[in-house]
Amino acid sequence: MPLSQAQKRELEAKMQEFVGLPISEPKPGRDAVNEPMIRQWCDAMADENPIYWDAAAAKEAGYDGVVAPPTMLQAWTMQGFEMAEGYDVPKNNEHRLHKLLTDHGYTSVVATNTDQGYTRYLAPGDVVTANTVIESISEEKATALGIGYFINTRTTFTDQDGDEVGWLTFRVLKFVPQQQPQAADDGGAGAAAAPGIIRPPMGHDNGWWWELVQDGVLAIQRCNGCGALHHPPRPMCNQCRSMDMGHVEASGRGTVHSFTVIRHPQFPGYDMPILAALIDLEEGTRIVSNVVDCRPEDVHIGMKVTCRIDEVEDGFKLPVFVPAG
Amino acid sequence: MTHSLTFPDVSVGDELPPLDVPLTSAVIVGGALASRDYTPVHHDSAAARAQGMQDVFMNILTTNGYLGRYVTDWAGPKARITALSVKLGAPNVVGDTMKMTGSVVSADADSGEIEVEVVGRNAWGNHAEGKVRVTLPKGA
Ligand SMILES: [Zn+2]
């Protein structure tokens, strides 16, 4: 059930009580910066930068000895194994804020941004302490994932002398998922299948047209009553109301009537950017298609194009248009 | 010692050599544990599936680690990373490949600092769009 406006105001007031609070007492990382953890990190990242491995190389680069990869900053203060228990029982203010939202239906969380700065490179022996504050919470936002609130935290990292060694901001979206997450039904056996293009729905009215495309033919529906051409195919002629439909084979020659270059959002399975165009076919109808083999800056209104039927995925063909030779 | 770029070696518009990162279980789980991130979705495929994912996926520290590594692989050991800014997108799930590309988008001669725009793309779209700030030696 969506929250009423009054419930939402009440929730937002409770959320605002968290703004400015530290998430917990600052606590030094369990282990000082150390070479075994540096090497374990570099193994996982396949990072062969010698300043992380070899004191002589590090000295040549201007350090006193081996240093830690700067992107490891937060790793020195992570809670480690206890994180595996989850947060059903909140352990700090951040968990309490998240639970407050979860309890109001904002059950999902996704990290959207992180910014960090490194004041100096850390070296073995440095003891790092994280001081994290809940910096701000947005108004309710409608996003592609669902409605939710952006929560911004800021962490300042200090060393054993209390000097800042770096900082980190982190933004998460706590949201009401539009679709309930589903467990995969393959039992987890397979890896993530690569996404493909979205296939057109093929029904009674247009299935024949797509079948001809699979045979390499670009067809245009033609009314057997009055001869009017239609695209996309339809059950009844809008000129004479006849339902007796045939088709002609298009020459494939056309002209760009209008176009748009789709850069965002980046659809999985598509090569971006996509040149989507409205093409005037020389027979007198229009078709929406893609212009390919053409740079976005080269497409223009009035450009002559020719249809080509491409097998865009195994066993599936799509008509596209290329600049006329 | 490995070659390092100096500031005069670099121009705005320079492209970094692309890097394909195979997203094996070892990379995903190894990266999570190396960063002391035991959040279940990064090592437990049942927990990941309960969140609608097909398998475990990369944690943010590992993403950051790869962005940093990608830039210093190119710039060399004398490059000093000063800042990182990342917009996160499609999760890096086991079995996929992250294709990394990058280019130099700004260079400040006074400070010797350059900014490299890095994109890590997988089959679902951009996993990470980042900017990495790096200070290079001033050179001869
Ligand atoms: Zn008709």
Structural class by sheet pairing and helices of chain A: alpha+beta
Quaternary state of the chains: heterodimer
Which term fits the overall shape of chain A?
A: elongated
Order of helices and strands of chain A: HEHHHEEEEEHEEEEEEEE
Distance between the termini of chain A: 58 Å
User: Count of helices of chain B?
Assistant: 3
Q: In the CATH classification, which architecture of chain B applies? A: Roll
Key terms:
heterodimer; A: alpha+beta; Thiol Ester Dehydrase, Chain A; OB fold (Dihydrolipoamide Acetyltransferase, E2P); 3 domains; five-stranded antiparallel beta sheet; B: 140 residues; alpha+beta; 3 helices; binds zinc ion
Short description:
The complex is a heterodimer of chains A (325) and B (140). Chain A is α+β, with helices and mostly antiparallel strands and 325 residues long.
List the helices and strands and how they pair.
The complex is a heterodimer of chains A (325) and B (140).
Chain A: H1 5-16, E1 27-28, H2 35-45, H3 55-60, H4 93-103, E2 108-118, E3 129-137, E4 141-142, E5 147-158, E6 164-175, H5 207-214, E7 219-223, E8 229-230, E9 245-249, E10 253-262, E11 274-281, E12 286-290, E13 304-313, E14 316-323
Antiparallel strand pairs in A: 1-3, 2-6, 3-5, 4-5, 5-6, 7-8, 7-9, 10-11, 10-13, 11-12, 13-14
Chain B: E1 15-22, H1 25-34, H2 45-50, H3 60-75, E2 80-88, E3 97-108, E4 113-122, E5 125-135
Antiparallel strand pairs in B: 1-3, 2-5, 3-4, 4-5
The structure holds zinc ion.
Describe this structure in words.
The complex is a heterodimer of chains A (325) and B (140). Chain A is of the alpha+beta class and 325 residues long. Chain A has three domains: 5-33 and 68-177, Hotdog Thioesterase (Thiol Ester Dehydrase, Chain A), CATH 3.10.129.10; 199-249, no CATH class; 252-325, OB fold (Dihydrolipoamide Acetyltransferase, E2P), CATH 2.40.50.840. Chain A has five helices and 14 strands. Chain A has helices at residues 5-16, 35-45, 55-60, 93-103, 207-214, and strands spanning 27-28, 108-118, 129-137, 141-142, 147-158, 164-175, 219-223, 229-230, 245-249, 253-262, 274-281, 286-290, 304-313, 316-323. In chain A, the strands form three sheets. In chain A, strands 1, 2, 3, 4, 5 and 6 form a six-stranded antiparallel sheet that branches. In chain A, strands 12-11-10-13-14 form a five-stranded antiparallel sheet, covered by helices on one side. Chain A starts with a helix and ends with a strand. With 140 residues, chain B is of the alpha+beta class. Chain B has one domain: Hotdog Thioesterase (Thiol Ester Dehydrase, Chain A, Roll). Chain B contains three helices and five strands; from the N terminus they run E-H-H-H-E-E-E-E. Chain B has helices at 25-34, 45-50, 60-75, and strands spanning 15-22, 80-88, 97-108, 113-122, 125-135. Chain B has a five-stranded antiparallel sheet, with helices on one face. The longest helix of chain B is centred in the middle third of the chain and has 16 residues, at 60-75. Chain B is elongated and about 55 Å long. The two termini of chain B are 18 Å apart. The relative contact order of chain B is 0.25. The mean pLDDT of chain B is 94. At the A-B interface, helix 2, helix 3 and strand 2 of A face helix 1, helix 2, helix 3 and strand 2 of B. Strand 2 of chain A pairs antiparallel with strand 2 (80-88) of chain B.
